[in-house]
Amino acid sequence: MVRARVALGIGLILVALVALGTHRDWADGPRETFAFALAAGLAAAALLVWWAAGEETPAWASRGATAAGITIALLPALVHGVRVANADAAVLAELPEPIAFGRVVSPTLRGESTFSAEPGAVVLRAPAGSEGFLDVKRPALGADRWELPRALLPPGGASALERITWSAEIERDNTYFVVLDAEPLVVQLRPFDVYVQTRAADGRYEEKSLPMSNNPARTRGTWSFSHISGAGRAGGDVHLELDGRDVWSGRLDSPPRHLRLGETRTDREHGGTLRLTALRYERRVAH
Amino acid sequence: MPVSPAARLATRAGLCAAAGLCAAALHAALAPLPAADDALRVGGKVAAGAVLAWVAVEIARRVAGGRYAAFARRDSLAPVAALLAVSLLFAVLFAGMPSRMTLNLAGFHAVALPLAWVVGRRAGARAAAAAVMALGVFGAGGGAVNATRAPIINDVVPESTVKWAAGWPTTAWVLRHELLLEAPLPPAPQRLVFPLAQPYAGRSRVSATLNGRDLGPVGPMGDGISVPIPTDMLGLTRLSFELRADPPDPRLRVMAFRYGRGATLPGAASHYFDGSAWRAGTFNDAEGRQQDGVYIVRMVQG
To answer: Which residue does chain A place closest to B274, by CA atoms?
Structure first.
């Protein structure tokens, strides 16, 4: 009996060591917390088995305590295995139809801006001097999604790739229209280019212009913005595409504070209309 | 071989520690973004709870076993000391939570004082003290549990399933609210008011119909949409209000509530037209989903 218990203990310790050896930040969260879960599970199992071995303990209670001890010792390792197996899982949100815009965006309107859901599109009108933009909702998942890698739970979590892809028609009233405000990155349309501006940690601005031979007042296209955050990347790697064409790639000194489509500027050089026909948000583990 | 009291104490303490460690392991393994110290705190609370439960069981056993019989006839200040000790325990346990401390102390004394008096008369001061202590142990365990529920009356929260907001996402959108009255309204000016979810100062205007009759623009004014009931319709017992907004504006929203108690047609008072069909309930446009419930309205005289 004693030998069986010793063998059981060694087996549980080996499982815990294997789990610790295969720990991944993106799957299990911080290493010390995961190690704590394994250690606490083993300690609880040891105490339960010790109680189970007592002379006063009835046989049924002894069996129950032993089973509970094995379960609690194995649980962190099992959870780890499930999360690693779900490495390709994604958090997705899509605009199903214009009237259900609330599932993916939250409009903010000030001044003369208007917003409505029309057949086939949601339409945001932000004349010069009025702020009007759509905040892309970044779903935060709760405790019930225990099976997902931890990097997926909070928006912009460590080692997570966030991507939004949206199709839109933009009609500029004036020189500028904000396509995407992902502070510290701002993407704007101008008459002859796509103008990308980033702000470094020291407050310095960097600019890039992607010339467009034909950029009339009305522009239609599918944009894709992706951002990878994680260890070793202070703010994250960023990639922006328009109709499959690279617009800008680089690094940010801080992660995007928000993802906003539309006019976040109120000067008279801005203003226009955004007709959003499709939007997809996804969050994946960045391996 | 009989088990020594020390060994029994050690096994019980071990079980309490095991309960705490199990909770800590579960928290560290499953919580969304756990930190080891959080898990340790959870484990400590569970272990403390296990100790309290164990103490309560021991007290109950001893009382049932008559171990206090020897002390039963002695007069002493034991019940008062017990009351003070438990009060002190509550004060320490709920330090920093004044509402909870007050509520628990008031509740404890409201039960403990008559309990001590009744038990003291029948079984003596020591038994009364034991009863007060046992009540305190249960009170400390139960009082620490946070079982609060979302209040029924709450500010509008988009993701709420109790009280949310409903707007007009498109120009074709219509909100309908029906009243089925037991008797006609009194022959005095009456209005049905739809309170707004937030103050509105935009340029959208709401127009209304009542039983199909066009009433023209009805707001928003102040913090609500106020629909006057024409005097010649006050005699009707079924009133169907329909509201349209032009242009649509997501800042203009009325409030909706999950529970229809108080509505004259509790499950069927509110509908919305989405441009293609009438649908029951409300549409939470901030979340993009249909939600069963009713628009919040109130009838106002004058």
So the answer is: A99
